[in-house]
Design a protein that fits this description.
The chain is of the alpha/beta class. The protein has one domain: Metallo-beta-lactamase, Chain A. Strands 1-2-3-6-7-8 form a six-stranded mixed beta sheet, covered by helices on one side. Helix 4 links the parallel strand 12 and strand 13. Helix 4 packs across helix 6. The two termini are 36 Å apart. The mean pLDDT is 96.
Length: 298
Amino acid sequence: MTTETTYPVDTKTHPDVTAFFDEDTNTISYVVKDPASNACAVVDSVMDMDYAAGRISFESADRIIAHIRENGLSIEWLIETHVHADHLSAAPYIQDKLGGKIGIGENIKVVQDTFGKVFNEGTEFQRDGSQFDRLFTDGDTYEIGEMTCFAMHTPGHTPACMTHVMGDAVFVGDTLFMPDGGTARADFPGGDAAQLFRSIRKVLSLPDAFRLFMCHDYAPNGRDVRWETTVAEERTHNIHARDGISEEEFVSMRTNRDATLGMPKLIIPSIQVNMRAGKLPPKDESGKTFLKVPVNEL
């Protein structure tokens, strides 16, 4: 018999959330500050990559670092909501500059095993999540200053997806988009549309006034980029998963829609880097770093 996880929901704490939009990948990173102290966390940071040139840089991460320093903040956590397939994480770069622990869902081990095979990684590539400082399980709590936060396992987009709830601020990763953007795809290895539907309903069972922060926005229909909504708005208006849409309807829609989608342009470098907690593959005997391109595997 499976027991349902009870989450320590806190309706009184209202953290300060500062967003950083990366135009190249349509990714939103966040600095989340405990309202009672100078402690903060960074959620879903971005390493810049010119894929055609094979060059990486850190302009996006440097903006986050500058904000933290200018405001006298102390970083405690670098949270990855999942193994991103559309941008590379800058977590180790920020950690090297400012400290903090890198955390991700415990099912990173499933992702590492799956994509370790896709990218033909050798036995030296550890598939136990040891590249990260903390592996979260469903209902795990952690502190940012005086604020108690918790992680919800929300698989479907990937097996390792976690939604992080910090006071009344909820960081959903790719599980949900803004109401007019719908929901994430579920056709990557380990994805599952029925699981995604159940994960979304779990998120939308949080209090109506809770703020939801997206990892991506693609400005559908030409509107301005947006990244913040509420549980109530998603339940009422989400085009894929609003109240009244059944699991069967959602799975049919998601399956048909996913069949029309191409792969994200940065999926090959992103997964190789992000399953290593944002670190590049080890250098070869000549001191050079290479990324692999698997042929006909994705």
